[in-house]
Amino acid sequence: MLSRRSVVLGGLALSLGPARAWAQASSEESVAAVLRERVDVGRESLGLVAGLLDGDRRSIFAHGQSGSENNRPLDADTVFEIGSITKVFTALLFADMVVRGEVSPGDPVAKFLPRDVHVPEFDGKPITLLDLATYTSGLPRLPSNFKPADKNNPYADYTVGQLYDFLAGYKLSFAPGTHYEYANLGFGLLGHALALRAGSSYEELVVSRICAPLGMDSTRIALSPSMKERLARGHDASLAPVANWDIPTLAGAGALRSTASDLFTFLDVSLGNRRTPLAAAMEMTFAERRPTGQGTPLVGQGWFISTLHNDEIVWKDGGTGGYASFVGFSTKSRRARILLSNAADYSANTRAGMHFINAAYALPRLRRQVPVDPQILASYAGRYEVTPTFILTVRPDGGRLYIQATAQREFEVFAESEAEFFYRVVDAQVSFARPEGGVAPSLTLHQNGKDMPGERLP
Predict the structure, then answer these.
(1) Beta-bridge partner residues of 13
(2) pLDDT at 448
């Protein structure tokens, strides 16, 4: 339980600790309002838990439902899948092993794998542990032999043997350390190699090196009986319940479950508010910074660092099939924020989390879904060429519409009008031209401030 916090449920706040003088009331009212709008108006999530850490003051806000069978109310101890926030834990393990002298940043990852495993190099330059930790290994986001049998639990059947087979056959297009690419594969490989070096499983390593020393008893991969009782049910972007994910081989990329209470502890250490044996390793994770080639943010080890609005925010988000998560803090204001959702509303969750740290980061527009006649949706079915190598395949299914981009998963889009649709997994929208002869001749993808037209293919 938290020693100092505020709890907001249904708009009623109960103060349980001393408040700091500066701007807390309006800030807390704003957070409560955003949560209510996202759950009740926008229907972006079934339930949300937000955590605010300001000095020694901790505040918890919760709105909506857990969706669990026992209908347990949402609070600081509700368990969520935290997805790619796991990467920060993997990076911290790496930094801790560097501090202990067990590994070096420049060690090739091949050094810690079985001798018969071939790891690709670029002109004789190997992939190092630091390259993996900073998203610059040259490996792709996912291996080409990643072909899940169950799309609702996509990582469950990917094996260590498949990982080694992929590495043996892959040719790097970039020298390690020179090219950023978001890296589920890279962090999965890093966690695997560190566990082999330590002679334990990845989860055992996280628990023994991070969770146990910090007193984080609800951050695990395997759910304890207590965690199962407190687990929020995951939901997809349309708020339909979905299964939890299992990530055995690439665990270091996204397998952890946690709570706002445990993440408060983690952020306390990240900010240096608590001196622990992990302090030096934690500082190391955001001291090394590399460019993404996409402007801000930079990348640290696991973390991203954004430097807009006269601020510096260190942050990481995550998402699985039914959850979205965010943690971050400002190195200038010293504010830290947590936002956990039991729905796959990834983009909106991250943008709201950034806004809670620094209000200069705009909140995502709240979009309201409207019903559309299935016959109109049927007129949008087809393939649309945005570029010769980027095609959007549109598939109606009754009263719902799905779009799959080249080499990506299919996602549902939601109607704002008969011709305008929005994604919930990313900040992007699609508008269709008025149908001619029963079909839409074109569409336009709106993303990152750009309008990208696509003509219907025969």
Answers:
(1) 8
(2) 86
